[in-house]
Description:
Elements: E1 31-32, H1 44-54, H2 66-76, E2 83-86, H3 88-100, E3 106-111, H4 116-123, E4 127-132, H5 141-146, E5 152-158, H6 170-179, E6 185-189, H7 204-210, E7 214-219, E8 232-235, H8 238-247, H9 255-266, H10 268-292, E9 303-306, H11 312-321, E10 324-325, E11 327-329, E12 333-337, H12 341-356
Parallel strand pairs: 1-10, 3-4, 3-5, 5-6, 6-7
Antiparallel strand pairs: 2-8, 7-8, 9-12, 11-12
Amino acid sequence: MSNLRLRDLSGIPDYRPGKAALPSPMGASTHKLSSNENPYPPLPSVVEALHSAAQLMNRYPETAASELTAELRSRFAVDAANLVLGSGSVEIVSQLIRATAGEGDEVVFAWRSFEAYPMLTLAAGAVPVPVPLTADHRHDLDAMLAAITERTRLVLVCNPNNPTGTTVGQAELDRFLSRVPEDVTVVIDEAYVQFNRRADSPQGIDYFRRHSNVAVAHTFSKAYGLAGLRVGYAIAPAPLATAMRKVALPFGVTSLAQAAAVASLRAEDELAVRVDYLVRERTRVAEALRKQGWKLPESEANFLWFPLGPDTTAAAAEFEARGLMVRPFAGEGFRVTVAETEANDRIIEAAAAVLKGARITQP
Ligand SMILES: *Cc1c(COP(=O)(O)O)cnc(C)c1O
């Protein structure tokens, strides 16, 4: 028997990865729609950059990531002092939490939102303060404001929100930020910003410029299709950025990830065509589902949220039996990624089949 003296981590839920696409029992092709990945293969120019970078993988990556930092500096017109890189924006969120909150400090976020928020908060020894979404699945910024106490160090605003796809608008974010104490950091997690077409959408970078307590988190995993390489970044006030670097995973962004990120930024026009297509598909699928009678929240991300409540597990099983892997949250709903046309057509079919099944009470 082991008698290792471990930390008590029993309060931290295990991370559940998105289900892989297993062979479908009906023999049809299967689609992994459970992790909001980009369905397209990497661009040839990105693969080429990776081939060159591979020649140097006996060396440690450059911690300053000078080429990637230079690209980001010119694109956002910020100083290198404001840029922090991480092994995916999950690590960026981890750095933000650990740079601001220690034992007993509070981290406020909407719930349900990104699964990593409570886990990373607990791992830092801090206290998660989840604030329920409104009845229409949106951030309740007034309630989040009311949840701020003397112990609050960080507030996470996920825009668009994972898993509901809902957004915050400029006016409500302005009002919120004018009332958050200036010594509390507000992070705008914009993992899906490229998919957000809301006309009055706040751009995190503008808020970073206007407020001394706002940081923005971005990732190359979703719109840029580099989920397997692990690279994300924050644009943050310099003192916060300095603190984040102290708690960062050393050499957390590999030379391959840096090279692919640079190549992706340079190929942005090509990538934008793909993002635009996914946005059009999101609209097409959402319209088809609403015609079927589904009441889904307006999504500005590359996924849709089915608020199925007690019917979630049965409906997810129906999708999975048809080879569509979704991300269910029992008792609440499931999230399904908008992907290539064929997968999206099958989402529409599966949703119709779910409605036909007598077990389902929505709509
Ligand atoms: C996917 C996602 C991220 C980032 O993931 P990485 O792959 O670690 O960059 C961050 N925030 C939210 C809300 C996400 O959905």
